[in-house]
TrEMBL record:
Protein name: Sensor kinase SpoOB-type protein
One MF term in the entry's GO annotations: phosphorelay sensor kinase activity
Entry keyword annotation includes Transferase: yes
InterPro entries listed in its UniProt record: Sig_transdc_His_kin_SpoOB, SPOB_a
Originating species: Tepidibacillus fermentans
């Protein structure tokens, strides 16, 4: 019994150290990214930074509670899979921080803050930080802002929380963005299509892969080095 308790204590201590290191690393990355935005309103940037860190601290504490709950129940088999889940989230945050387009990176970080009614799962390809799409990044950013603003408004109107997966990867000379949503977006189908048509008019591609009252899957293709627009905050 003493041996089991000792093992559980060591696991819990290790998890605490793991989460704390991840939190400190994220804090450092966000501070570094914030310094790259000196031309923006310092107070606004600081407020966003504090809100984001507070949100991630809350998430990490929730992770700790879940893991320690498994420890107390001696469900050691579930601890490993949950740690892998937490590790993948942290890895995605690291990929975001390395993106060449910092405004897009900040947007991805800020989704839980700016769009609280959208539960987001991010899936970025490992090679995305290596791609120089700083000009096209603003194009992608503006498109995502338009889509997520619609989703947030729809969620408020219907008192609904959307679950979504946002994936980004490279396909030859294009950045491909996939958005998968669970929920009814029939009333916003036309507005989303209009955003897609704007992308097509500017040299990109837009596809609706699945559309019904339960799911909505859309896909955007942004050619690299095909279009440059002014930088935005």
């Amino acid at each position: 019994m003493i041996v089991i308790l000792l093992i559980l204590f060591l696991i819990a201590t290790g998890l605490l150290l793991f989460v704390w290191r991840k939190y400190k690393r994220l804090s450092r990355q966000l501070r570094e990214m914030n310094l790259l935005h000196k031309e923006n309103d310092p107070q606004e940037c600081n407020d966003k930074l504090i809100s984001l860190l507070r949100n991630y601290r809350h998430d990490w504490l929730n992770h700790l509670q879940v893991i320690l709950g498994y420890v107390s129940l001696k469900k050691l088999d579930k601890i490993s899979s949950y740690i892998m889940q937490v590790h993948e989230e942290a890895r995605q945050h690291t990929l975001i921080s390395k993106l060449k387009h910092k405004d897009l990176a900040v947007f991805l970080y800020m989704i839980p803050i700016e769009y609280p009614n959208i539960q987001i799962q991010l899936e970025l390809a490992n090679d995305l930080p290596e791609i120089d799409f700083r000009e096209e990044g603003t194009w992608i950013l503006q498109t995502l802002q338009s889509i997520f603003s619609l989703l947030q408004q729809q969620s408020i109107d219907q008192h609904y929380i959307y679950s979504s997966i946002l994936s980004m990867n490279r396909l030859e000379k294009q950045i491909v963005v996939n958005i998968e949503l669970e929920g009814n977006l029939t009333s916003y189908h036309e507005s989303i299509t209009q955003i897609g048509e704007q992308v097509k008019q500017q040299g990109g591609q837009f596809f609706i892969d699945l559309y019904n009252e339960q799911e909505f899957m859309m896909e955007f293709h942004f050619p690299i080095q095909a279009r440059g627009v002014a930088n935005v905050c």
